[in-house]
Design goal:
With 202 residues, the protein is mainly α. The protein has 2 domains: 146 residues, no CATH class; 34 residues, no CATH class. It is 53% helix and 12% strand. Helix 2 crosses helix 4.
């Protein structure tokens, strides 16, 4: 239990995972609604979603130049939330309690967890979750932007080219100070400088 004024429910921890509920949330929800929220969070805990999302956000942050990763991370977040909702519905044999609890989370005092923490009410995901619950089928996944996909593919190819490109380096004196000159095999002039660097002083 977490003593806060806002309504909050989330799971936290990579290996020693726990479910956290705010005291105001427990007072606001009925017993069946509270059970639905706990079942939703239990699904996150059981599936190591905190660890999954943390890794996804870490990769996305490290590779900002690959725009498709942001969309893939968002798809993953929505998928995990929809799966957790489906688990609660299957266990309770009704979608009524999970829907009513979601409605109560729309109040102004609701608080959202950060991006890589599986939360009962992550921002910008209500539409997908409610649609999946009401229609009783898997969410419709939007295709990834073709422009972002092309940029991502080009970024991967460029990184692969840089990783495989042979590089020659030589120590030299530059303005009287020691330095290093690096060049590729595609530059004959640079190669000649590297090969004769021991004789050159700048």
């Amino acid at each position: 239990m977490v003593s806060t004024k806002g309504s909050r429910a989330f799971s936290l921890g990579f290996f020693h995972r726990k479910i956290y509920l705010s005291t105001s949330l427990v007072k606001k929800l009925s017993q069946q609604e509270l059970e639905a929220v706990i079942l939703h969070e239990y699904k996150h805990v059981r599936d190591f979603d905190s660890l999954r999302l943390f890794i996804a956000f870490a990769v996305e942050s490290a590779l900002l130049f690959i725009p498709s990763l942001k969309e893939l991370t968002m798809f993953m977040r929505i998928d995990r939330e929809v799966e957790a909702d489906a688990f609660a519905v299957a266990t309770q044999n009704t979608n009524r309690h999970i829907l009513s609890s979601l409605k109560k989370f729309l109040s102004p005092d609701s608080m959202y967890a950060s991006g890589f923490i599986p939360s009962f009410t992550p921002d910008n995901m209500f539409d997908a979750r409610v649609s999946s619950l009401v229609k009783s089928h898997n969410m419709e996944k939007k295709p990834i932007s073709l422009r972002r996909l092309l940029i991502s593919v080009c970024s991967f190819l460029f990184l692969g080219y840089l990783a495989l490109m042979p590089v020659h380096a030589a120590e030299m004196l530059i303005n009287g100070k020691p330095g290093v000159v690096a060049c590729t095999e595609t530059s004959p002039l640079c190669l000649a400088v590297c090969e004769n660097s021991s004789k050159l002083t700048y």
